[in-house]
């Protein structure tokens, strides 16, 4: 039997020892979250629930695979409907009032629809669950509702694009809202990658300049 757990392996072992009903316990790999248990009378659901209680220690319990999949499906459905509704409204009004919009408007309309499609299918690919041959959930996929994850930024792109589509019907200048997406991407890159890298380089250069005078002082002392 293979039990998937998001908790520490040591906690799993403690629970199994308490029940004393399992043998042949081994971890598939050091970095794996799967526990293989042979000759075990303890059901995987009980083991998962007991492990959750033992390992939480005041922290919020980790979601189960089934809950993650259900929430991902609901999230995908919500943002799919948002993409369809806002794109449909924008396309409908653009063709009804064809003379009120220029070529630039229709080019950006095609771009925004492409953004919706790519963002939606990207979320589908990253949240796609994997199953065993017996239909057991092997991996629930990435949680689309986790805070600070990639999915949060993708959802922000969909919301921003939908807002730009709707407000562009009032004025073409509202297409400028799309500029916020690359600006935010640059800010995140600066915050998490470029900024820390520059700080590290400056610290290394400061350490080098501090060591250089020390070497010169040692040479002067030796000459004296």
TrEMBL record:
Pfam assignment, any one: TMEM208_SND2
UniProt KW keywords: Endoplasmic reticulum, Membrane, Transmembrane, Transmembrane helix
Keyword Membrane listed: yes
Topology in membrane: Multi-pass membrane protein
Cellular component, GO annotation: endoplasmic reticulum membrane; vacuole
Locations listed in the record: Endoplasmic reticulum membrane
Record field: transmembrane: 78-98, 104-123, 172-190
InterPro entries: SND2/TMEM208
Keyword Membrane: yes
Major place of residence: endoplasmic reticulum
Name listed for the protein in its UniProt record: Transmembrane protein 208
Recorded family membership: Belongs to the TMEM208 family.
Biological process (GO), any one: vacuolar protein processing
